[in-house]
Every structure is written in structure tokens, then in C-alpha cells.
Amino acid sequence: MPQGFFTDTTLCIGCKACEVACKQWNQLPDDGFDFTGFSYDNTAQLGASTWRHVAFVERPVPLGGTQLGNFSWLMMSDVCKHCARAGCLEACPTGAIVRTEFGTVYIQPEICNGCGYCISACPFGVVDRREDDGRAWKCTLCYDRLKADMTPACAKACPTASIQYGDLVQLRVKAKERVVELQSRGLAEAYLYGVDAENQPGTGGLNAFFLLVDKPEAYNLPPDPVVPTKLMKRSWLTMAGAALGLGVLAVSAVVAP
Amino acid sequence: MIADPETDVSRPVEDGRNIDPRLGTLAGEGSHQQVERIQASRPTPSNELATGTTYYGLPLLKETPWKWAIPAYLYVGGLAGASAALAASSLLRRDSLGTIGRTGRILAFGGSVVSAAFLIQDLGRPSRFIYMLRVFRPSSPMNVGTWILSAFGGFAFGAIALPGRLGDAACLGAGIFGLPLTSYTAVLLANTAVPLWQGTRNALPLLFVSSAASSAASALELFDLPADEARVVRRFSIAAKLADILCAIAVQREANVVERVGRPLRKNPLWKAAKVCVLASLVVSVVPRKSRWLRIAGGVLGTLGAAATRFGVFEAGRHSSRDPQASFEQQRAGMSLASSVTTSLTPA
């Protein structure tokens, strides 16, 4: 039964407890302590050793249904999307990246040989290679905790239930109800990002989907991501035709009188 | 009692985990991640001017970790594949084309060895290179390509090591596997989220094949060939270089469908130099009854052009992955999937 995350960004308060819980549970090294100047975001991106990242968006426009003046502060805890059709998984040449029994996408560190192909194949820029380690890393959706029937560390630590973990079918129902509720309260811009295959055909839906209130680009999410493999049929055919053309050219150059 | 970490000399190298290993064994999912140096994860904002909505101009995608060896392989692999195809074709002639056959076989085998070396040294864990062959995965062009290169390498070795008919049979095998070897790399690049590579997915295989052919022709032009073999190389060379130029134009046109996607290729100095070199090389090849030095000049120009083509496409792609707007505009323009998808796009 596929499990996943529903990240409701309207509930996020930017406390970064998810980032800390993730680092601590997974025993990941820190990324250095650095100020970026991008609002409260000093993590900046997901990476090999950063599997949760809270984005902070400062906007000079009010949020629907509020009377707080011309300002709104959006926060979103970003994570690997565990796509139903995952670019990294389909590109992986060694079979190191697998689909687990929970429907999540998992990189087996003992198999990965660090070819780096998954990094370019991910339309969300999630996977990264740690240069001193040589392998690709990303969120495992706490595979070890799931096997022990526990909630992933980030969802467990989230104090506002912005990150909700559970059975994907139930999460989708809950998320759709939440959008209706928010819209009835005046937040007309609330919508779901990647909730299912219909919503995001390029990836077949995300096992970690989001409720957003601005366009995806504002959160550094692609508006219409696609698994690169989905587009490749014509490329393979063109390649085959071109390769045959080379064969014909070589033969005719040789046999012509 | 736990010793003060500041004074305890037995404390292991600071690895950014802030966990005292004496408290227990680290068993977390990320505990095996080796740390030599704590790296700030700060990405560099795109240096292109942000026009639309972006997240502080930060890149959407992760840049490829591939270094110079990969574009170098794109060139060498193409050269080896096309040389093998030419050597195999020369078996069809009753009067054997000795020099083309011999040189082609050497270029094919040498190229396959150099290719493997380039690819392995670029891995994050080179000692695990053989894991590439633990599965067969048609969905991964890199996996398919590794099988093609392995088969090619085997046949190319046979073509120089085996005597007589057996060697010829191996040469034919190398020629057959050489054809996809010249072009699977284009599908490999296209099968990524990199806007430029994904955006040129139809023309790129054509360019890589013709560029491989023109690099093999240019390499053969460097050798002293008998008159009848020089004629064969000249025919092959003119056709290949002409196709190369036309395909480069096709790639640029396909990239330009979304202005922002085509921009890094258009501005890339290597890409511009490549076009000039290939064109100059074509002009030299067309000149009839030329001196040996002129032929060598044509070969050198063609070789530079073919190498610059691969490095140019690679560098421009890397550049385009730093620009979040390139991906956003490409996807908003409905270029990433069937245009029907755009109707379900989230609010703008």
C-alpha cells in the first residue's frame, strides 16, 4: 500500500524542526553554518546531506482571506517527491534506485557507483552527489522507520501537522477536503500540486505532494515536470534511423566506384 | 564519563554530525555518508537576469557532476564507433582497403579502451564500475550504452587480435555495434531534465551521428592513404561534414523554440568555434587534388570541430541547468510533455 507525505504549506510556520529531525534521525552531516540573505532560508536547497528544506517566500501581496496588509510570508517544507514515475529510478543504470514496498523511491548506498545520471534526470533537482562520498543521496522517506511501523522523522517532529504522513489514498482525500475548506474561508488561491496522475501527468503524481498558495515557480517547483524517459521514444527512433544512415553512408562511400 | 571533545585527542575527525561515536554505533540511513570536508550547500544564483518568478534566482535543477571526461568520451566514443563502421564496410571491397581497414580497427579498439577509462574515472565510486552491468535496463540509456560499449570493445579487440576470417567477423561485429555507439549518447543527454538537452532531443542524435562520422573522416585524413582509399575517405568526409553542419543548424533551431533554452548554446564560444572549424574543414575537403598538408589541415580542423561540438553541447547544457527560468519557460510553453498537458497547469 503506497505511503506518502501531504505537505500543507498553509500550516507551515518555518520552524525547521523537520530539517533538524531529519538530520538527527538519519545521522547526516551538517552543511556548514552560513547565512544566505534569502529571508529565513539558510539551507537554500535540498542536497546529498539535506533531505528536508524549508523555503521562505516573502511577497508584497496579501494572502486571500487575510487583512494583514500588503505582505505575506509563505513557507514550504520541501522534500523528495517520490514520484509515481521517477526520473532518477528510470535513469539509474545499476539498479541502485528501487521502488520499495511502501511505494517510495530508495537509493541503495551499497549499490550506487556514483555515475551521477540520476542527478540530471530529476526534474525537481532533488538528488545530489556528495563529492567526498562519491555516491548519490536523497530522502529515503525514512525507510528504516517505515519498516519498523513508525512515522518518518520529519512528520513526527512537525508541530503544526503541516507535514502529514500516511496512506496515500487517504492523504489525497484529506488534502482535497482541506483545499475546499481553505477556499470556503477566502483563500481562493489554494490548490494541490502533484496530488495524482491527472494533476501532474508528467510524473504520474507525487507520493509527496503539496498544498500551495502561489504558482509553483515561487517555491522553486517546476510548473509541469516530466519524467525525461516519457519523451524518449522519438529520440530512440531518430537515433536508430541516424545510425542506419551512417551505416549506409559508410558502405556506399566504400563500394562506389 | 564522556571526555571533553575539545581536549580529547582520540576524538575522530569532525564530520559535521556532532555525535560522539562512543555513545553507540551509528546506524542511520545517512550514517555511512563519508565526510572529508563539511560542504556548504549554498547554490549559486543564476547569472542570467531573472525575469519571471523564481526562488531568489536559485537554480531549479542540480548541475551535472560530470567533468571533462564525459564530453571527451562523447568525442572518442563517436570516433571509435564511426571508424569501426568504416573498417567493417571496407570488408565489402574485393580489393581490400588496407589502410582504412587497419587504421579503423586500431581507432576502434584504442577508442573503446580510452572511452572505458574516461567513463570509469568520472564515477564517484570507480571501483564499482562493473555494477553498470549487473542489470539490463532499457529505460536507462546509460545502462543500454554500457552494454553497447562493452560489446563493441569485445569485438574491436577481436578485430585486431584474431587472425584472418575470425578477425574480419569481429570487425563486422564492431562495425554493427559502432553505429549505436556513435549516437546513444545523444539519447542519454536528452533523457535528462536539463532544458537544453531535453529541448533538443530530436535533432541531437542526428548531430552526434554526423559529428562522429566527420571525426572518423578527419582522423583518417591525417594518415597517408593510397589514391583509391583517399578517394573513399574524401567522399565519406564531404558527406559527413555537410551533414554535421546541417544537423548543427537543426539542433540550434530546435533549441531556439524557447528563446531562453537556446540562449546558452547560441552564446557558447565552443559551439561557435565548432561550426567555423567544421565548415573550414569541409571547404578543404572539397578542394580536389590537394597536397598532403592541405589534407592534414582538413583533418585537424575537422577533429577540432568535432571535439568542440561535443564540449560545446555539454557546457551549454550545464549552463542551461543553472537557469531556473529556462525550465519554467520551457514547461509553461508546453514543451515538456504533450501540449494537452498545459491545460491542467497549476495557476499562473
Topology:
The complex is a heterodimer of chains A (257) and B (348).
Chain A: E1 3-8, H1 17-26, E2 52-59, E3 72-79, H2 87-91, E4 97-99, E5 105-107, H3 117-121, E6 128-129, E7 136-137, H4 143-147, H5 153-157, E8 163-167, H6 168-184, E9 191-193, E10 208-212, H7 233-255
Parallel strand pairs in A: 1-10
Antiparallel strand pairs in A: 1-8, 2-3, 4-5, 6-7, 9-10
Chain B: H1 69-89, H2 98-121, H3 141-161, H4 164-190, H5 195-199, H6 204-221, H7 227-255, H8 259-266, H9 269-286, H10 292-321, H11 324-332
Helix pairs in contact in B: 1-2, 1-4, 1-6, 1-10, 2-3, 3-4, 4-6, 6-7, 6-10, 7-8, 7-9, 8-10, 9-10
Question: Can you give a write-up of this model?
Answer:
The complex is a heterodimer of chains A (257) and B (348). Chain A starts with a strand and ends with a helix. The longest helix of chain A is centred in the last third of the chain and has 23 residues, at 233-255. Helices cover 27% and strands 18% of the residues of chain A. Chain A has helices at residues 17-26, 87-91, 117-121, 143-147, 153-157, 168-184, 233-255; strands at 3-8, 52-59, 72-79, 97-99, 105-107, 128-129, 136-137, 163-167, 191-193, 208-212. The radius of gyration of chain A is 21 Å and the shape is globular. Chain A has two domains: 3-226, Alpha-Beta Plaits; 227-257. Chain B has a single domain (69-332), classed as Formate dehydrogenase/DMSO reductase fold, CATH 1.20.1630.10. The radius of gyration of chain B is 24 Å and the shape is globular. Chain B has helices at residues 69-89, 98-121, 141-161, 164-190, 195-199, 204-221, 227-255, 259-266, 269-286, 292-321, 324-332. The relative contact order of chain B is 0.13. The N and C termini of chain B lie far apart (60 Å). Chain B has 348 residues and is mostly helical. Classes of the chains: A alpha+beta (257), B mainly alpha (348). At the A-B interface, helix 2, helix 3, strand 6, strand 7 and helix 7 of A face helix 1, helix 3, helix 4, helix 6 and helix 7 of B.
